[in-house]
Amino acid sequence: MKFTFALDLGLMTGHEPSPAAPQELPEDRYFDREESWLRFNERVLQLAQSPNLPLLERVRFLAIFASNLDEFFMVRVAGLIRRMATGLAGLSASGKQPSEVLRHTAELAHELALDHARCFRDTIVPLLVEQGIEIVRWNDLEPAEQDRVHQLFRERIYPVLTPLVVDPAHPFPYISGQSLNLAVTVQDPKLGTTKFARVKVPPVLPRFMEVSPGRFVPLEDVIATHLTQLFPGMDILQHHAFRVTRNQDLEVDDDITENLLNTLERELLRRRFGPVVRLEVEDTMPPEVLDRLETELGITKHTVYRLPGPLDLGGLHDIADLDRADLRYPPFRPSEVMLPPGSDIFAMMRDGDLLVHHPYDSFATSTERLIEEAAADPRVMAIKQTLYRTSGKSPIVDALIDAAEAGKQVVVVVEIKARFDERANIDWAHKLEQAGCHVMYGIVGLKTHCKLALVVRQESDGSIRRYCHIGTGNYHPKTARQYEDLGLLTADPEVGEDVSALFNHLTGYSRYQDYRRVLVAPDSLRAGLIERVDKEIGNHRDGRPARIRIKCNSLIDEQIVDALYRASMAGVPVDIWVRGICALRPGVPGLSENIRVRSILGRFLEHSRVYIFENDGEPEVWLGSADLMHRNLDRRVEALVRVADEQQCADVVALLDAGVDDDTASWRLAPDGTWPWHSDGTDIQETLMRRRR
């Protein structure tokens, strides 16, 4: 079964080659990583600002922006501060001092956060009102609505609130990360003394409370109105919302000799108490209250972000989820992988490789079906699987458990250090072990990020055959409907041997490197890609067809970037389709005028990683889990598989050509690091959906 990307978009045929340039590379050839990430989130915000998108989808992008920015501070900013504090931070790849990077990052992040708040207040809120959806403050409520909220407060909110006062007997309370709080100043009317108190807005309650059909009020407004019930007999002098972000990055020693699972569980407990890296406050907060928070939290002025209320707009997901189909993207149903009557997925894979493109092709009837049929098939002897992220209720995990309980050998490599999914993955590991699966945690010092499944089956003639899946995305049924990913299902013996050897490397102890259709990090992936870049340079020098096409989430590895610069300087056209961070500076005369960088954001999250080399007119196509980042190439087990079928190679080439075509709507990276949005072109995601329909 094959899929086709024959998109009639006026595809470009390539760049005009430039004369060879000297090989010296300028020192300022890399963009700053932190700024590039913020520019990515700026593109997310532009989607929220776009009048061409359905209204509730714009609300969703506002929520995504807020969540993204939280993670940026929890990981990137926290990591930079930690390295500065420990003296480990040298110059960044862009040549800037860490303090300069941090200062510039704070300024740009604050500017974007203000734009985000203004977009919500000045644009989205009025548009929601036009559609009968109102987000109002307490003073805007009708008397009948206020009466109803008074009752709801007594019944549902008051019982879970805990006011914490600060005095000599009560130290300043711990403020948990990502929690919304009220800083309250209360006065004893008899003694005249004032005290500071903190009230946490319970995260177990809806961020926006529906007070009547279609009308919502922020939860902190409800709590603030009822502070006299929390501090009876006291005068409430003032109250202001604030929110803290803490360092949430894990620091697990890769040289540990004790049980990794136990160590990680302790680290998850410790992470709750990471240092503060950002304090968000409403712009109405007076200096004396802010000074108190800064002192108690041990932070400096550059950590403070003054914003128009309400804070914590990540909670807008609840509004985006409202049952208003008229304000959402139209429903889309992926095409199903259809099996001939009386056939099974193993027979289909024996007939030839299957290339699936999610979410346009159904995950449930392809990848998920492979594992489910393998669990139920009495001829299947073993299943081996990597799990990096999966859903709370996972059909794949259920199938693995069923297979183990049926007596099959089941090996699962669970990456328990997958960021922010650590607790869920630990729970899955326990459940799989209890069912009789052999659970491994990969290789010490490396994260297992590759997306692999291997099924070992005894055929009717007694022979043993291996069926494999290698993909670009996680085995996660929910995100498979939202993330754009590619997957190759194959019974090719060479791939089967490669994947078997890789699993033995993950679960055993080996230095196997004789892979034939697979490139594996950290051993051969970077070198393999650079070798192919150099081959394209040689082909161009010899007058043969040469071109490089890349689709990835992030491009920051200096060795890869420099190899692409050398290709451009030699005259090789290079097209890069990147979702997020890009350290490469395109369009610089004498350095990168043959490189174009595009970014596409939209209904689906572009997540696949594809590397295409023209290879003298016979394109070599690789797809898999690896982005072009240090962590992927040096500190993770990643795998790329070469697509062998000629038509499937042509399909993937057509996909990437469409993505970077000038007639396709996209953001286009300029030499100065800005990303002008050319939004009036063809929507490639809509085109692919229309063809599936």
UniProtKB/TrEMBL annotation:
It catalyses: [phosphate](n) + ATP = [phosphate](n+1) + ADP. Residues 602-632 form the PLD phosphodiesterase domain. Keywords: ATP-binding, Kinase, Magnesium, Metal-binding, Nucleotide-binding, Phosphoprotein, Transferase. It comes from the Bacteria. Coiled coil: none annotated. Its cofactor is Mg(2+). PROSITE patterns: PLD (PS50035). Gene3D superfamilies: Endonuclease Chain A (3.30.870.10), Polyphosphate kinase middle domain (3.30.1840.10), Polyphosphate kinase N-terminal domain (1.20.58.310). The active site is at H449 (phosphohistidine intermediate). Its EC number is 2.7.4.1. The keyword Coiled coil does not apply. GO terms for cellular component: polyphosphate kinase complex. An intermediate of this reaction is the autophosphorylated ppk in which a phosphate is covalently linked to a histidine residue through a N-P bond. Mg(2+) binds at R389, R419. One of its GO terms (biological process) is polyphosphate biosynthetic process. The keyword Metal-binding applies. ATP binds at N68, Y483, R579, H607. It is an enzyme of class 2 (transferase). InterPro entries: PLipase_D/transphosphatidylase (IPR001736), PP_kinase (IPR003414), PP_kinase_C_1 (IPR041108), PP_kinase_middle (IPR024953), PP_kinase_middle_dom_sf (IPR036830), PPK_C_dom2 (IPR025200), PPK_N_dom (IPR025198), PPK_N_dom_sf (IPR036832). GO terms for molecular function: ATP binding; metal ion binding; polyphosphate kinase activity. HAMAP family: Polyphosphate_kinase (MF_00347). Belongs to the polyphosphate kinase 1 (PPK1) family. Catalyzes the reversible transfer of the terminal phosphate of ATP to form a long-chain polyphosphate (polyP). This is Polyphosphate kinase. It comes from Stackebrandtia nassauensis (strain DSM 44728 / CIP 108903 / NRRL B-16338 / NBRC 102104 / LLR-40K-21). The gene is ppk.
